[in-house]
Amino acid sequence: MEQDQQSNPYGEALAEAAKLLELAQAQLQRARARAPKDFTDRTDILAKRAFELKVKADWLRCLDQGKISFSDRQSSDRRFSIDRRLVRMQKVLLSLA
Q1: Which of 6, 43, 80, 97 suits a disulfide with 32, CB 3.0-4.6 Å?
Q2: For residue 90, which of 64, 65, 53 has the smallest C-alpha distance?
Q3: Nearest-CA neighbor of 27 among 60, 54, 61?
């Protein structure tokens, strides 16, 4: 699966999605700071979901490039509104940087 990202439309699309999601996260944080009290929680949920999507897009891109191997041993846990698998995914991605 070692492929050059520039010749891989799937990898390019995932990289672009990650960039756009990072921009969306910044805008959602700005919106949360300016939101009326009634909308703060809803905006916070949107920001958390944008974070999850960005990590998953980065994970899939690295998986597609062959930088990491897939293992899905940990189950989802929504107690803190963040999927526990994302924490592990993010740690792996940070170790690659």
Answers
A1: 43
A2: 53
A3: 54
